[in-house]
Amino acid sequence: MTRVRLENVTKVYGSVVAVDHISFEVESGELFTLLGPSGCGKTTTLRIIAGFEVPEEGKVYFDDEEVTFLKPYLRNTAMVFQNYALWPHMTVYDNVAYGLRIRRRKLRLSEEDIRRKVRWALELVKLEGLENRYPLQLSGGQQQRVALARALVVEPRVLLLDEPLSNLDAKLRIEMREEIKRLQKKLGITTIYVTHDQIEAMSISDRIAVMNKGKLLQYGAPREVYFKPTNLFVADFLGRSNILYGEFLGWENEYALVRIPDLDADILGVSPHKDLPRKVAVVMRPEIMKITESRVPTDNYIIGKIDLVMFLGDRVEVRLSTGKTSLIVYLPNTMYPTIGQELKLVAPKDNVIVIPAVWE
Ligand SMILES: Nc1ncnc2c1ncn2[C@@H]1O[C@H](COP(=O)(O)OP(=O)(O)OP(=O)(O)O)[C@@H](O)[C@H]1O
């Protein structure tokens, strides 16, 4: 099992800083996800770890060994690509065996050893019986399984997955992400996963690193990053948020008090920052707001009128018009809200997040 550490890594293409002084550590056996919008530098970071790219600055370590300049084939990583990158003229068996055959001498493998290992990998990804098919005779999901088997068969120190589910339909994506998570836990391979899909990232990862414009903005366990975003980009990119701008008035015990002109009210919330500037943003997730029957205003009391109702199956999403703004609120699917209905809500102050009002 291998720890992966990046120290201050920077990669520049011409005038584009693809990766900008990034540092993080992936623990041994962990599933670590790089999450961010297109072009934020996720793939470049992965390619640096694989050794396909050499950074201009910074260092990469596998455990305590520096590998920044080590050739890719000496790192023993395996990569799975979005487009599978299977060899169309080779059968499933030969695709999976390929990595073993090129290492055959070094690893002193007999044809029987190879057969055993290929069988093991195909069993892991549930493709037994399809050994003699060609990639084009397989569905997208099956092709992705072959790609996964081909990566796992060499028993890599580090498994690198670059948007592996992007080409699959929604249902299959959910099925495969479950399977990847199960497999990864079973084998305990240190895995670095790249995606722009925040739900996929939260569901599959031990920890997530959120990137934007080449920079790593925050990393932590999914719950930590979701519930305690330290900046506006993370709050907005991960999950859905109501973001309201206001003026920080000071601390009331451990709570930040914020005047919000759009609500014509003061809101209390918690902050991951000890010091807050005057201009702040208040983040309220749509699911934190609770209906109250109280007419007596309490902390973080919000009253408004519903102007849009959307039934989403597992919940009802409403738009609540309040003050000069409109909030997204999730209600249980047992409720039948209607347009024009008045709603009285409380946003529990421990679930309201206050952060500086800057987008970086
Ligand atoms: N070989 C290259 N030559 C020039 N610019 C590049 C090269 N590779 C990446 N870039 C640029 O570096 C930036 C980061 O690209 P990267 O592919 O790492 O982003 P990404 O987050 O993986 O995006 P996507 O999800 O779209 O693949 C982008 O602006 C991209 O255009």
UniProtKB/TrEMBL annotation:
Family matches, as SUPFAM superfamilies: MOP-like, P-loop containing nucleoside triphosphate hydrolases
Keyword RNA-binding tagged: no
Protein keywords: ATP-binding, Cell membrane, Membrane, Nucleotide-binding, Translocase, Transport
Entry superkingdom: Archaea
Record-annotated ABC transporter domain positions: 4-238
GO MF term list: ATP binding; ATP hydrolysis activity; transmembrane transporter activity
Gene Ontology CC entries for this record: ATP-binding cassette (ABC) transporter complex, substrate-binding subunit-containing
Coiled coil spans: none
Pfam families for the chain: ABC_tran
Presence of the UniProt keyword Transport in the record: yes
Alphabetized InterPro entries for the sequence: AAA+_ATPase, ABC_transporter-like_ATP-bd, ABC_transporter-like_CS, ABC_transpr_MalK/UgpC-like, Mo/tungstate-bd_C_term_dom, P-loop_NTPase
Identification of the protein by name: ABC transporter related protein
Organism: Staphylothermus hellenicus (strain DSM 12710 / JCM 10830 / BK20S6-10-b1 / P8)
